[in-house]
Specification:
A six-stranded parallel beta sheet has the order 3-4-2-1-5-6, with helices on both faces. It has a single domain, classed as Decaprenyl diphosphate synthase-like (Undecaprenyl pyrophosphate synthetase, 3-Layer(aba) Sandwich). It is built from eight helices and six strands; from the N terminus they run βααβααβαβααββα. It has 224 residues and is an alpha/beta fold. α5 links the parallel β3 and β4. 42% of the residues lie in helices and 15% in strands. Bound molecules: 3-methylbut-3-enyl trihydrogen diphosphate (2 copies) and magnesium ion. One 3-methylbut-3-enyl trihydrogen diphosphate (IPE) binds next to α1.
Length: 224
């Protein structure tokens, strides 16, 4: 790995929890549980590698279409996880923030989110951004509504939920689509798809993706 060419902003579409569980004869919820735990393992790896920002897709504005039981599980598990692992979470030495709508998620989850943001807000260096009830359309529409006329690129970017172009976008589990993730920020991201299901994605897989990224020639429409 070339340490002088580490992507600053990496996005991960954490897909495949359900398929990972199915392969093991387990309910989808078990996949979500293991996927959630894996997030902290991969974030640690990303920090050690020298990535500045890792933005992960945890729940999309479209995921409300799923069965109520699955949604309930997805909304309750982070709350239980937080209360069970509070001591360990307090030791987290990086910043964690959340992007996405805050007006539709359950109140107990919102409280946990605000608590985590408050407890980690002064940490410098690496930042983990969790996209929850996030959708690219929703973000851009809300940004336009907050923008002053005449609306231009600077205005829109100023009001985005995260104003940082993405360098590398990874999607696990084989699907090759964006599914409404960071549409604006990913405009010039290098795309990387792996068949590995999210709960099995680890530091080794992350390094492999970065090595692949380092072979790309980023031209931004110009010539290089
Ligand atoms: C990703 O795993 C997690 C969420 C979208 C919440 P999936 O639940 O989409 O798993 P698959 O794609 O059905 O395997
Ligand atoms: C995208 O995965 C959203 C998250 C990983 C949170 P989905 O599983 O919801 O995407 P589609 O439905 O396959 O496009
Ligand atoms: Mg999926």
């Amino acid at each position: 790995m070339d340490l002088t060419n580490i992507p600053k902003h990496v996005g991960i579409i954490m897909d495949g929890n359900g398929r990972w569980a199915k392969k093991r004869g387990q309910p989808r919820s078990f996949g979500h549980y293991m996927g959630g735990r894996n997030l902290f393992t991969v974030a640690r790896e990303a920090k050690n590698i020298g990535i500045e920002t890792l933005t992960v897709y945890a729940f999309s504005t479209e995921n409300w279409k799923r069965p109520k039981e699955e949604i309930d599980y997805l909304m309750q598990t982070p709350v239980d996880f937080y209360h069970k692992n509070k001591d360990k979470l307090y030791q987290i030495d990086y910043k964690i923030s959340f992007i996405g709508r805050k007006d539709r998620i359950p109140k107990n989850l919102l409280e946990v989110i605000l608590e985590i943001e408050k407890n980690t807000k002064d940490h410098l260096g690496f930042e983990l951004v969790i996209a929850l009830d996030y959708g690219g359309y929703d973000e851009i529409i809300s940004s336009v509504n907050q923008s002053k006329l005449p609306i231009d690129q600077i205005q829109i970017e100023k009001h985005l939920m995260i104003n940082k172009p993405m360098d590398l976008l990874i999607r696990t589990s084989g699907e090759m689509r964006l599914s409404n993730f960071l549409l604006w920020q990913a405009s010039y991201a290098e795309l990387y798809f792996t068949k590995i299901h999210w709960p099995s994605f680890n530091g080794k897989a992350l390094k492999k993706a970065i090595k692949n990224y380092q072979k790309r020639n980023r031209r931004y429409g110009g010539l290089k």
